[in-house]
Specification:
- By secondary structure, this protein is an alpha/beta fold.
- The protein has a single domain, classed as Methylglyoxal synthase-like domain (Rossmann fold, 3-Layer(aba) Sandwich), CATH 3.40.50.
- It is built from 7 helices and 5 strands; from the N terminus they run βααβαβαβαβαα.
- Strand 2, helix 3 and strand 3 form a beta-alpha-beta unit.
- Helix 1 crosses helix 3.
- The longest helix has 14 residues.
- The two termini are 22 Å apart.
Length: 139
Amino acid sequence: MNIAFIAHDRKKEEMVNFVIAYEYVFKDHTLYSTGTTGTRIMEQTGLSIHRFMSGPLGGDQQIGAMVAQNEMDLIIFLRDPLMAQPHEPDIIALLRLCDVQGIPVATNIATGELLVHSLQRGEFGWRELVHKYKPGEQS
């Protein structure tokens, strides 16, 4: 499964701790992240992560491009709802693409925990069907 991690500045430490707690789950998947978040996760874990640009510099859009191509399976995006983000339009566009493509996205730890436990139990088999029969292709 392709999994992306995104965290706003005041949520980066929380993201690192979350990934450390579930490193044993994430190690078996292909991981992506925006720049700084990915760097911090890799510094604290043994995980290999493909890092895109920083979110405000286009990283959210790079992950969004994977979502638009139905190449992302799960996103953990720890947003800071109490801080205005200069790239808010990019964030909204990414979340809209996830809704269009049916990509599960967690925007807080509680939802992240639910999605990781589902992943751990093997309940994402439906994503394999989506990859096998992409919309617009004949089966």
